[in-house]
Design brief:
295 residues, alpha+beta, five-stranded antiparallel sheet, three-stranded antiparallel sheet, 9 helices
Length: 295
């Protein structure tokens, strides 16, 4: 964890922590689905929902009409389908990500270090993850109107010794949902909403793959068991939403704390212990409810 002028605090990972290449991961999941019997229509999107036919949901696609008893809606953070089908609308944040070549001569520890900059943004942070011969770097903000994102990214790289002087390449931006609290419902009329589309994203870090996979598992298990939409909604509220609600409390505290105060906190033993618990959360060894009381 980088506290800018107050130095860094390092925490050892226990193993089993991976940097996911999203394109390769998605391709792997698609191959597994096809191997299990799914039919993949690559690049085909749902244009709109037509009038239902008997007990089937009718969807209009560029390849014609599709009829289904259930629909799992996992269309990313920015989609009009959820709202059109009667679900809530996500509030959005924004992030920029890029790659930076590894400089020659870096020691082995630096080549394998994941870095989080806590003193960069009031409502966000910067990050750097090692991947082969480069670093994946980024900055993210809980605000949709993230001004001067490119300038903040360049400043982050300039202030980070292992990134300084290297070319910033492959810059891309994305909107991410902000979890502000549970929706009224996550499934209705045969439609199950999950992942980023349902706003199921870590309120503090913006990480969403874990919640997408878990909500997808819950939706699939509910459909296969024949328990109906209400059962999926109940399981989300028991298995995923309590921790997200606790994370949202912590995120609000983090965003209220100015960057200079976070940097100053790096000198305090209590702050460092709390930061260590945050690292445990990143590694999946601790839940948010263990950091904050439920009431």
């Amino acid at each position: 964890l980088d506290g800018a002028w107050n130095g860094r605090q390092s925490y050892a990972l226990t193993g089993g922590t991976f940097v996911v290449d999203r394109a390769r991961f998605d391709e792997y999941l698609a191959r597994q689905a096809v191997a299990a019997g799914a039919e993949l229509w690559d690049g085909c999107r749902v244009v709109r929902r037509g009038a239902d036919h008997e007990d089937r949901i009718r969807l209009l696609t560029p390849r014609g009409m599709v009829f289904a008893r259930q629909v799992i809606l996992a269309a990313g953070a920015v989609t009009s389908l959820a709202m059109e089908w009667g679900f809530s609308l996500n509030q959005l944040g924004f992030c920029l990500e890029a790659t930076v070549p590894m400089a020659t001569g870096l020691d082995e520890v630096t080549q394998h270090r994941a870095l989080f900059s806590l003193a960069l943004l009031r409502c966000g942070y910067g990050w750097s993850f090692p991947r082969a011969d480069r670093f994946v770097v980024g900055v993210g903000s809980a605000h949709y109107h993230f001004r001067n994102g490119s300038r903040v990214l360049a400043r982050f790289c300039a202030l980070t010794p292992e990134l300084t002087g290297q070319l910033i390449e492959n810059v891309r931006g994305a909107m991410i949902p902000k979890f502000r609290g549970p929706w009224r419902c996550y499934a209705r009329d045969g439609i199950f909403v999950l992942g980023d589309t349902a706003g199921l994203v870590d309120p503090l870090t913006g990480e969403g793959i874990h919640y997408a996979v878990q909500s997808g598992r819950l939706a699939a298990e509910t459909i296969l068991s024949g328990d109906g939409e209400a059962a999926y909604d109940r399981r989300l509220r028991v298995e995923l939403l309590p921790d997200l609600c606790q994370g949202a409390k912590l995120a609000r505290l983090f965003h209220l704390c100015p960057p200079w105060l976070r940097a100053g906190g790096m000198a305090l033993p209590g702050f460092r212990r709390c930061a260590g618990r945050f690292v445990d959360i990143l590694e999946g060894r601790r839940d948010y409810h263990l950091l904050l009381p439920s009431r």
